[in-house]
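pasting for ref
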Amino acid sequence: MAKHGNYPLQASGSSGFWHKLKMTARDYGPGIVMVLTMMGAGDLVTSAVSGSNYGYNLMWLLVLSLMLRFVILNIMGRFQIYNTGGMTILEGYAKIHKIFPIFFGIAAIFMGHLITAQMIKGSGIALAWMSGIDYPFIWSICVVIASVILMRRNAYSSVEKMMKVLLGVLTFCFIGLAVYSGPNPADILMGTVGFGFPSETGAYGAFLVGIALVGSVAGSLTNLIYPYFLQDRGWIRPEHKRIQRNDLLFSFGAAIVIDLAIWVVGAEILRPNGVEVSDIGDIAQALVLYMGHLGAWIFYLGVFGILYSSVIGTANGYGKIIVDSYYKLSEKAVKKTDDLDKDPKVFWVTMFLLFTPLVWSIPGMTGFVTLVLFTNALSILALPAIAVGLLIISNNKAYLNDKTNNIVENVILAATTLLTLWGSYTLLMSFFK
């Protein structure tokens, strides 16, 4: 009787787990779209390069960067949901000074172009390898055409559904590769709390890789996209705050797992074999030697998932930043109840950000890894403006009443501002050496 009595309870528990998983997949969305949009080429390359060149030494920087970004995005989400004026995030920045929408609008044109270029170029390379038809430029064109077709429908709804599928693909591919490589948990633990910073070795300097990691993970203009995803989903009222926070926590948990898995592949497979990542094919070739053809195929499937999941989200999100910046400068308010997703200006700017990056996929242009590291190091230049402005508007009681930042959030924002100001200055000085 005991066994019989326990059986339904066990089945119920299993059913409860799958029911919760199904409900999570159905109810969550903006955080998943945001995390997969922000990951892309930056996480893939900087994590793999860091792991292959420095082992686990810089892993603490990855953890720190993700923590910083979670705080920044959660504050932005709270502003979008609670602000009493019904403002978009850029309207809040514009109330500080018009220089903010001017800077964000111009920066979004350049960074949206370069970041989308990474995703399109890398997706083409992955499809060329998996198909056996070695014409990456043609495949990049196919990626853009497929994105345009998807964009013709309800953009956000289509992107969210696709992202949830690709999240499963990414998790399976990269965790599978990491587990197969047989990492030492103690090494991973020491890497996350050891605060080590290696000497300048490897194909790319530790400083450039470190700044690229902060730029691609902790911040960049991509952070400003998140409130628009909340608008698209309809999470714009105070009762949405709890699910918004839980959605973001779940999504960042997935991001940490995937990023660490990519890092482990670099540390456990690339580094012991002396592989320096100068091209995405270097990673695949090492996996062929280590795991056979199947390992490389799984890797490229994950590469395509992590890159293509960012193409539409990046182009569409940056399109909204550019158009909203234009509206702020032309004194046209875009309330959080408006639907930027259906604005024709957003569609055409998105098309611009999808087609112009194809120039970087033309044979003979800058290599994929070099393009990624340079773009993501450049991304850090926008973070001081984002952090300083956010520090001001998120502490304004006239906008948020009693929903302003707590002391911990203010310390994190202030520390992030100082860190990125230093990084931006050092990076700019390196250009003039």
